[in-house]
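Section handout 9: paired folding examples.
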Amino acid sequence: MSERTDGIPSARSSAHATLADAEAEGIGAMLRGVADEIATVVEGKREAIDRTLTVLLAGGHLLVEDVPGVGKTVLAKSLAAAIGAERHRIQFTPDLLPGDITGASIFDQATREFVFRPGAVFTHVLLADEINRASPKTQSALLEAMEERQVTVDSVTYALEEPFMVIATANPVEMEGTYRLPEAQRDRFTAQISLGYPMADAEARMLAHQTAPLGAGLRDAVEGIRPRADTAAVAHAVEATRRVHTDRVLLDYVVRLGRATREHPALALGASPRAGVHLVRAAKARAVMDGRAWAVPEDVRDVIGPVWHHRLHLSPQAVSRGTAAGDVLADILATTPVRA
């Protein structure tokens, strides 16, 4: 078996690899085309676009925490348009009810029977806008859908279509009238990112694009996006990503990273086993985005920030010293070797 320079066996020569190189390269090319299309509207945010597609490919969900007006909603709408997917948007407010998300059984006067009316969650891309403005009871209505790809109403279970991805936004600045996401809910999100303000030249291009005349019949710039994939192809890509080869050395590396967070003196709460699962899935997706059928430690190190940052809780002493979760992750990566 040939060895890569980082010491991880190449999946090209591994009998355990089930995803063909050509298939990985094809999926990677498709996703790069989707990213290019999104970038025509979301200017200067290629890293955020790639992170979003990595989460999609990993079969996960994304939490976007940032100030208003930086393109969180546009990113979600552009993703759905670029993969030819159906999208729904829920504006989370204090009076939003769980049934508004999942749906409810309505009594039909004509048939004299209860009929299920699907809620907004029955879609491919669900934008949960300002998710922290709804009550915890309403927030929790998403838990089953995010984890199990299904909704149960009146003891009847309804499967969701594939692909299914929740992109939730939250404003970390304005806290009045908001409810902190429960830890169980935050742990369901594969990754958390922030868009930040664009560079000056990217912002200028965005201003020009967003204020330019629209084509006939278009209401906004997002409607001008051309689909570069379809939902069937994306669903297949998500399934194929699970077949990316991961060496036992890499899996042991992820386990030791997780244990290091649980034992780090600056952390009151480290990464859970679910966090490890999401990290491996994201690393596999990162490999496919690069056109590879095998994952390497560099994939793990590349995605560990957005995948684990929102799951780590600093100790009171670390907070008082001004330590950030990113600092702790950097320390753990620097002190945890790939091989034990």
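Moving on to protein 2 of 2.
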Amino acid sequence: MTALPAPEPLAPAVRGRWRLLPGSLASPRTARALVSTALARWEVGDLEAAALLITSELVTNAVVHTGCRTIGLSLHLDHRALRIGVRDSSWAVPVLLPPSDSLTGGRGIALVAANSIAWGVQPMPFGKLVWAELARPTPSQTPTASPVIRLRPALVKPSGQIRAAS
């Protein structure tokens, strides 16, 4: 019997969730609760504030502007980013409006753009998917909470005794 080569290292874990929601005004709240639960389970709570804002805006847009009976919410987490997607059966594309003091609404996609590293619209066979990505923070190279202790070099006498250098 011949030995098998060592397996390649596994890719970083990819996690995902998918949920259908009704096209109702209660769906943004339900979507936020689902996202909050998933992020806590995946131990990426540092993304929660931005993820909840983005989820709320995307789901609200789908409910208010499309009239769809159902909306799909997807979450995809890998080593690089969290992707939030909202799918509906409308082909109407969301528009990033210029800032204006006279608008009473229309700031949802601007909020999504400002709080994500990327966002976009992907045409689907029966509608579209509007998505946004949040970058996962990279671990700090040096600990910030640990105090720095500076030691003075010690001098060793020929006799083996050690005394601190002045």
